[in-house]
Amino acid sequence: MLLSIDDLSSYYGQIQALKGISLAVEQGEIVALVGANGAGKTTLLNSISGLMQPREGCITFDGHDITHKSPVDVVKLGISHVPEHRQLFGTMTVQDNLLLGAYHRRRQASRKQLEDDIAAICAIFPILAERKNQLAGTLSGGEQQMLAIGRGMMAKPRLMLLDEPSLGLAPLIVKSLFEVIATLREDGTTIVLVEQNARAALRLADRAYVLETGKVVLEGAADDLLQDERVQATYLGGH
Amino acid sequence: MQKLLQSQTARRIAQIALVTVLVGLTIYFAAQKNYRPVQYVQLALDGLRGGTIYALVALGFVTVFNVTGIINFAQGAFAMLGAMIAVSVNIALADLPGVPRLLLAGLAAVLITTLVGVIMERVTIFPARDAEPLTLIIITVGVFIVLQGIALLIWGTDSYSLDSFTTFETSDHIIRLGGEAEGAIPLIIRSQSFWIWGTAAVLMAGLWFFFERTMIGRALKACSDNRQAAALMGISPERMSMLSFALAAAVGAIGGFVLAPATRPIYDMGLSLGLKGFIAAIIGGLVNPAAAVVGGLMLGVIENLGAGITRAGFKDVIAFLILILMLLFRPQGLFTRQQRVEKV
After folding, report:
1. pTM listed for this prediction
2. Which residues of chain B does A151 touch, with a Cβ-Cβ cutoff of 8 Å?
3. What is the predicted ipTM?
4. Which of A65, B152, B181, B280 is 20 to 30 A from residue A90's alpha carbon, by CA?
5. Where are the beta strands (DSSP E) in chain B?
6. Looking at the complex, does the CB of residue A92 fall below 8 Å from at least one CB of chain B?
């Protein structure tokens, strides 16, 4: 078990956003979290990465209790969170954004290694190589998402949390992004994917959890959920 | 819409009227003095020297503001400490020859002031880091008063002097340009001015390298761009906050140190330096280091020219007039086109 979450509750002030969520992620899996707006998907990712401090419950990553760890400590343990709305460093160049992704490895990695890592990411997203010296804020939506994922990869994570990577992107770009996510898993990265685009997410994932108002209402193999009547009616538009 | 249009038109008219009045007054006073061109150049050059120090102080304001969102009014005290510590070390090491003496004085001034900056952040800002920015700003005012009080206890109310970096004595070497002809007025530049300009130039180049070319400098920038994303990269906001105060203190101290031979260092010199540096940072829009430097140079030149054609005592009046006008008409700074947009 790489990541296990046990009976987790998080609050925004008085409002309870997560109501006792439990889930588990195995090494090498792609796990999708689907659900409507406000179901608690982003809150869950934020609680894992330390952006939010949960009030109750427990999060364990690779044997470490990370429930109340700060984002700085969590990324050092090997979890990379690619947050909602990309959260790039808009006033800095593409190159600098990528370099900063490797900030927590700055003492271990040599200059040469970082250059190689950037080259590897540019091989996956060739457009980033073209835009290397451009400010991140001037990129198109799809390019920004690629940069956000590339920056997350620079951390060399064992677990990647991807929050709505398809948001606001053209279908063709979404398709190629999801292909990249599949390659990431082949390279050994475990992935937790939050998506509103439930169909695409379920097709890509091994397993999935369906969240509603802060609770897990369904879980299982992604293929089974794709066939599930309730899921089809609520999240797949009844096709 | 109608109302907005009216208020915008009113604003425009007020701006034009104001500029007209200011230009008119300038021409009137200048005509009364009947200076020769070389005298204006002299005033501008002297102003440029003061402006360079304002620019360094302003860089401290911008660094701390970008990373923490705090306007650090103790910034002037850092410059004061830089000057005063250098003075004391220079006196204590009076037996040493000039070069090591002044080098050690400068080193001690910068190191001790940087330490003061770090301690200030750890003791007063860090425990209150979740407070409103206004609270934190008031804390910095408190720290300024405390630091000035401590300086008063250590150095008393006397004004001191620091040896010139060129002559290693109190009296500086003076360069005269022109003025050989009958009745001509020479341009006078004190050697220390070149030390001030040179140090500032090297320091700014160093800061540029630090922010653009080193990982830790990039991390500081990232923190000011998007704190949350920076934390997700493993950049600790608390550590960056401490680093920004250390950097601001060091830059302020260097400013105070190189200024010291050109002035009479005294325990309360930080107030005016801090406020002028703040005005310079405001002219530059508070977030842009390069604009803050230009703001500092502009402020120094304008206030000195203005005081030159009126009275020396008007220097501060002119500086604060600029501050009020900036805050009224261009709170986003002179060089920023649009209003700053809040980051989501």
Report:
1. 0.88
2. 233
3. 0.92
4. B280
5. 174-177, 187-190
6. yes
